[in-house]
Amino acid sequence: MAATRTITIDPVTRIEGHAKITLHLDESGRVADARFHVTQFRGFEKFCEGRPFAEMPSLMARICGICPVSHLIASAKACDALLAVRIPPAAEKLRRMIGMAQVVQSHALSLFHLSSPDLLLGMDADPAKSNLFGVLEADPQLARDGIALRKFGQQIIERLGGKRIHPAWVVPGGVSNPLSREDRDAMLAAIPEALAIAQHSLAWLKSVAETFADEIDSFGSFPSLFMSIVKPNGELTFYDGKVRFVDEAGNTIADGLEAQDYAEFLGEKAESWSYLKSAYYKPLGFPGGIYRVGPLARLNVVQGCGTPLADEELRIFRAARGRTPLSSFHYHQARLIEALFCIERIEQLLRDPEILSTHVRAEAKPNAFEGVGIAEAPRGTLLHHYKIDEQGLVRWANLIIATGQNNLAMNKSVLQVAQRHVRGEKITHGMLNRVEAVIRAYDPCLSCSTHAAGQMALRIQLISPQGEILDEAVQA
Amino acid sequence: MTRALILAYGNPLRGDDGIAWRAAEALQSALRVSARILCTQQLAPELAEAAADAEIVIFLDAAADGKEGEVTCRAISAQSAPVRFSHHLAPEQILALSGQLYSAAPRGFLITAHARSFKHGDTLSPAAQKMIPRILEQVCALLKKIAA
């Protein structure tokens, strides 16, 4: 019988939620398999059954404190489908704006607060320094920029939604309140600083990426499909569009897919060792239908962004990394290009006179028993699907979350990093941090993807061919 | 006039953990001195900027330890202890960030309500409700002392 050993990393740190990683060694001490386990469960899809459908946006927003706005939007769009209404144009623009504000704040959190210690201090840095305070010591301006960019997004959310976390402003049929001239002007005043931060942060990231040249090719770099929604002209969108898949060369393999037909092209597989289901592209089966979502996937899928500064950065990105960059290390740069795009697009929306319209909600009773809503959340494509009865009570709900769609890719990335960096039966900090860092590149939100509760944590176990735990590392 | 910031933090949907928010609401009408009041679920790094604009920062919190029903107040100072999860900081770390990022050195105080009931729900226990007037007294006393 072939012998194997396992390394477990538990908890995984600087991600949203609980996880552990097990690395299974073969007899020669090389990593033969790696598993990213998500060890929490909440079951939002179940406990919303029996609730009035109009409550769904606010209920679903509670899934996550980082990206509640994305859940609000996808849920409200599913409810719009139940009402069978076309929401007022101003409401759609306001929804787009709050969605992009959240992308900016979430991307800033991911890059500056969670991943910048790896990028600035290196993968072998002292764990006691690998945090925001370590970044602050090494580069105070970078830390200030991260805080300021996140604040920019949060303040727009607060001005539009009334509060930064769990605003209930996006409702079935539109939004609950129009935008005031005073708030519009205050948001416009913040645009120049946010643009400047996004631009010089991109310059910093491009220079620092060169120091990781040796790591990039084994940092979740492999062929896969990429998926996102796109505008009819193929440009980047976070609010509305049809689903497109491209392959590793950027060839479109499926296009114009409707959200309500998702069951025809998306499959989900549950594994006994994780609460996080793995999504796959159905026509290619499991696991051959592995695909990625999120910032890198969106930029690989689109023809262009549609705003001048972001388009120029996308051109530079592709010139340096190819039409379809495959390494998940590039999620970081994609994140900043998207933040730049969102700031530009928010400014365009704020300068649109219609944004101050007071007609922001369509009123109707349910006109359909089933509705699907889709949007691009910071971490990738988000889909809410509800069925209701004649009283408007939810009878069934299904949520397909970005992190689940990246699950196969995250597992493959962990395996690739571990195969390069794990040697012997001891877990070194550098190895531990690289395995974690590749997961952080996807910015997984485990609270969202398992609809799970609790504090973030990571455990890594190194397991022998006989199932014996050879070494264990825990970070909390 | 002293620039004061009152940072009330906790989860208003977890019973007595919402006491800081309730106290902050009461302070809005009770305060006779100028103070900026912010309610938040967690202490995130962005709050360092608001803290840097103040001369005194008073943190209001609930805690499950200590003697139930007691309200304690202590001076705190900047400490940049290692953190693994950077959107949930301690009051001392907010002060440290305000100094390191914005060269500010506000005085800090932490007023803690020692409670026991942290179940799901948006109402305070009777014991927690009784602590609100004492929190207000402590805040007002601090502000008067600083202003004097």
Describe the structure.
The complex is a heterodimer of chains A (476) and B (148). Chain A has two domains: 4-42 and 414-475, no CATH class; 65-413, Cytochrome-c3 Hydrogenase, chain B (Orthogonal Bundle). In chain A, 43% of the residues lie in helices and 19% in strands. Chain A contains 16 helices and 16 strands. Chain A has helices spanning 44-47, 56-61, 68-83, 89-121, 132-138, 140-161, 181-209, 213-216, 262-265, 295-301, 308-321, 331-350, 402-405, 407-421, 429-442, 446-449; strands at residues 4-11, 20-26, 31-37, 170-171, 174-175, 225-230, 242-246, 252-257, 266-269, 278-281, 291-292, 370-377, 380-388, 394-400, 458-464, 469-475. In chain A, strands 1, 2, 3, 15 and 16 form a five-stranded mixed beta sheet that branches. In chain A, strands 8-7-6-11 form a four-stranded mixed beta sheet. In chain A, α7 packs antiparallel against α12, α10 (295-301) packs across α12 (331-350) and α14 runs antiparallel to α15 (429-442). Chain B has 148 residues and is of the alpha/beta class. Chain B has a single domain (4-147), classed as HybD-like (Rossmann fold, 3-Layer(aba) Sandwich). Chain B has helices spanning 19-30, 47-52, 91-102, 126-147, and strands at residues 4-9, 36-40, 56-63, 71-76, 107-114. In chain B, strands 2-1-3-5-4 form a five-stranded mixed beta sheet. The mean pLDDT of chain B is 89. The A-B interface holds A 13-14, 65, 109, 113-114, 127-129, 131-133, 136-137, 140, 143-144, 146-147, 150-151, 154, 165, 455-456, 475-476 and B 41, 45-46, 48-49, 80, 82-87, 93, 96-97, 100-102.
